[in-house]
Design goal:
Order of helices and strands: EEEEEEEEEEEEEEEE
Number of strands: 16
Largest sheet: 10 strands, mixed
Helix content: under 10%
Radius of gyration: 25 Å
Length: 211
């Protein structure tokens, strides 16, 4: 099988061990938010710190275009698929998270985060503007590929409960207002908890698959 491809996108960089503070000072959380005022809370902005990774990457073919067959009765063929294709895909696939039964402030579905890259859907647009030679009897097909690597690690950054830290959260409703009792928590960027694993994008490219 012969494969021809073009340049890839920039690879993502893993989070460093020293992290910027995502929060400053204390915050007031309700009994429901903190699971009955648990001593420690995770946060949707916690950082995923990678501690292990596979030696090899693997190619995730996220899109396959129309096939072009070169008649064996004639000469070699030239193929150029002149259209641009946009494909939505997950930046991290197969995410598995274990959170040590900690309550999470915000949605846990949004918390997988390596160097600011959350679990999200991205769009990759490729224009197959180059010409590919196909020998007699061969078939060519434009494809878009995301190169992934399996990685795993832990989460860092969360909240500690302030003892005797009663507080209240004010809610404005129309012209009136009411308060919900809560407890203060302070942000600690060095908290480590849980573990995760995922197949993370490192780069992507377009090519003609030929067989």
């Amino acid at each position: 099988m012969k494969v021809t491809h073009i340049g890839s996108a920039l690879a993502f960089v893993l989070a460093a061990s020293t992290l910027p503070l995502a929060h400053a000072g204390d915050a007031c959380f309700t009994k429901d938010e903190s699971n009955n005022f648990a001593n420690q809370l995770g946060d949707r902005t916690s950082w995923g710190i990678a501690t292990q990774q596979a030696n090899n990457t693997w190619d995730d073919w996220i899109w396959r275009g129309p096939e072009r067959y070169c008649n064996p009765a004639g000469g070699d063929c030239s193929y150029q698929w002149t259209q641009a294709n946009s494909k939505a895909y997950q930046w991290s696939a197969g995410v598995d998270m274990k959170l040590d039964n900690l309550p999470i402030i915000g949605s846990a579905l949004n918390m997988f985060n390596i160097k600011g890259q959350y679990q999200y859907t991205s769009t990759y647009t490729e224009t197959f503007g180059w010409t590919q030679t196909i020998r007699r009897g061969q078939t060519a097909q434009p494809v878009q590929v995301v190169v992934r690597r399996w990685k795993s690690g832990y989460f860092q950054g969360g909240w500690w409960k302030v003892n005797d830290g009663g507080c209240s959260i004010k809610h404005n409703v129309g012209r009136g207002a009411y308060s919900t009792p809560g407890n203060r928590y302070w942000w600690d960027g060095n908290i480590k908890y849980g573990n995760w694993s995922a197949n993370v994008e490192e780069r992507r490219f377009g090519m003609y698959h030929i067989w």
